[in-house]
Task: inverse folding
């Protein structure tokens, strides 16, 4: 982490760090799910109702 | 640019009404998603998923866009600003995330409504679970944004500190 980023994180209140950590964790989780083929859009692409 | 007290109250009223209505609409969506999932008959399932699509297009999407746009305009016209306070930035990020996920969910919601019309919704298990999970997550995100805007936790960004220092000097 660069000095500037470290300074920005150090200046954040504790509750903001919780949100940033949760956001990063969610981003990593979504990336893993998408790479493994279980993420968003997967169920949509495989689902096409039969036209009548 | 700072709004006059009249415009400030007007924007605040519209923002609060659109945001709180959005939470109610998403709660209604969740109820329909659960009703559709647990439906005992094709007729109940059809009713739930068609109502869900109508509710999403006619109520949730307009309210979500209004809440986001008016929230941004309101922040720019008041001393809170858009990037001065951490709670405003996080609320903005949460709202943008919720709107993006909503847009990505639209094909699934439309697909379920179409499948309900043709009597094939029962086979779309993943899509039916997905609507319940996304509505629950969306409700949680919107409630968090509401709590942030009520409590307004402390914390000024570097940009906000610079603006405050500039105002004090000038």
Result:
């Amino acid at each position: 982490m660069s000095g500037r980023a470290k300074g920005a994180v150090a200046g954040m209140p504790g509750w903001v760090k919780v949100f940033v950590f949760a956001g990063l964790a969610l981003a990593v989780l979504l990336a893993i799910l998408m790479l493994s083929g279980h993420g968003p859009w997967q169920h949509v692409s495989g689902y096409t109702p039969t036209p009548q | 640019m700072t709004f006059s007290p009249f415009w400030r109250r007007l924007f605040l009223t519209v923002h609060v009404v659109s945001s709180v209505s959005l939470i109610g609409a998403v709660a209604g969506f969740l109820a329909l998603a659960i009703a559709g999932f647990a439906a005992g008959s094709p007729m109940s399932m059809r009713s739930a998923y068609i109502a869900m699509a109508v509710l999403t297009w006619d109520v949730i999407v307009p309210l979500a866009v209004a809440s986001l746009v008016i929230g941004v305009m309101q922040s720019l016209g008041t001393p809170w600003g858009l990037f001065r306070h951490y709670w405003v930035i996080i609320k903005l990020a949460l709202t943008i995330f919720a709107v993006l996920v909503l847009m990505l969910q639209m094909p699934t919601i439309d697909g379920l409504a179409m499948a309900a019309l043709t009597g094939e919704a029962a086979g779309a298990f993943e899509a039916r679970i997905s609507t319940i999970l996304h509505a629950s997550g969306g409700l949680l995100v919107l409630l968090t944004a509401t709590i942030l805007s009520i409590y307004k936790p402390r914390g000024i960004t570097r940009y906000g500190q610079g603006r405050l220092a500039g105002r004090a000097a000038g």
